[in-house]
Specification:
The protein is mostly beta strands and 484 residues long. The chain folds into two domains: 162 residues, Sandwich (Immunoglobulin-like), CATH 2.60.40; 297 residues, Immunoglobulin-like. The protein is built from six helices and 32 strands. The chain has a five-stranded antiparallel β-sheet, with no helix packed on it. Strands 5-2-10-8 form a four-stranded mixed β-sheet, with no helix packed on it. A four-stranded mixed β-sheet has the order 20-11-31-32. Strand 3 and strand 4 form a beta hairpin. It is elongated.
Length: 484
Amino acid sequence: MKISNYFFLAALATLFVLSACSKEDLKQTDSNEALQGYITLTVSNPPGARTTGTPTEPGLPAESVIDDVTVVFANSAGVIQHVATPSISSSGTTDKFQISLGTYYVYALVNCPIATADLAATTNIDRVISGVTAQEASTGYKSGKFFMVNQHNPNTVHAGVQTTVSAANTVNNPAQATIYVDRVAAKIEDPTGYTANAPVITDLTAKTSLLDAVEITGFVLLNGNKQFNLVQQWNSANPNGALNPLADDNVLSTPLFPGGTELVSDQYFNNISTYTQLTKDAGTGNVTAMTDLTKDSPTITYGLGPVYTTENRPTLSFYGASNKITSGRGETTGVIYKVQAKKSGANAPTFYKYREQVYATLTIINALPDFSGVDLSTYSIPQLRGLGIQVYENGVMYYTYFILDPNTTHQYNGSDYYGVFRNSVYKLKISSISDLGEDVPGGGTVDPSQPGEPGNPPIDKEEAYIQVSVTVNPWIINTIDIKF
């Protein structure tokens, strides 16, 4: 696969003004009002969280609603000292409120799904949210509202906004803090409009006469992380704790092994086992059948988005003499496109591929020496795939794209790396298709029931089908031009 990246930047421009909560809403450890001062808060989207530039893209109304805000006051070590749960008027403003005197690092948790009791004093703001389901992530986490938290990037030492409340901060002269928040969700969509912007398939049609056009049905999400950091984290280590070998650059850090094992089926929702089933011989462990679970599924739908998922940065690994960056197919967030082959305006019939040769009928394959004495007509389609025969049932093909984030401000050793960042929009576009795709989602290259490389083989960019152009900024838009 050859991947080329170009960037244009866009950001979310919606501004929310919040002041905070009444005294009654505040969890306090000191009832002596003489030792308290007043504070007001302004909560806003950042002018540029991890990249710089314009234009910006306002979020959809559902993506921008603030129903509630939980205000957390922590010390410099992140230990929570006080929690406030303000009520918000229709204008998005709350009353000034009192807080014990002192210097705090202030956090705004917007549309917070975490119970106030779980944010009790002595717990730390740097915590991991676990057990995320596909349904919870699909609505911005967690209840149809978009959870937002203080922005954090390598340029900010603390995500919390340092604020001092003194006796001079009266009701008429409150302390003030401006807090920039990011949605914890990443957004993926394909707004191309393929009727007017069909992908170029010149190279594809030159390889087979069995199709003369394609129709993009849509995509499904692949590999959503079941965990995310409440506050975005950056460091020089891989999620599994191993140090990255090439540089000391800070990179996005997200939790790994949320299921407690190395199996990708435990680590990620919408992993490949959601879409393709591998049947194996109990004795040898060899794959005997591959079943497309999406073909007749009443619950799996291919569409053009938007879809939402959790932030995820897989383990970085390196290959080649120049130590090019790659990651594993089992833990890298991406999409699987469903593409319908067309012939003379109609859907192409079923065709086959064996040992890199394309065939119109199974009879021709059955005449090959490899299948002497075998009656392939007695095999089911999943069983044929177990024999190494790709079966493009009713002309359907699948293409996988793993998202390579083009973060020009924060790279690793001068290179982009795989991952999806919170508060980012990834806009996809297939501009060309140069080869046949897979006959099942993912192509059977990942065995999610196995640890290590069988469950997480490396992405080989030199052999894949996609070229990508991406854009980044908050509600960060990543326009991705894909060539299969």
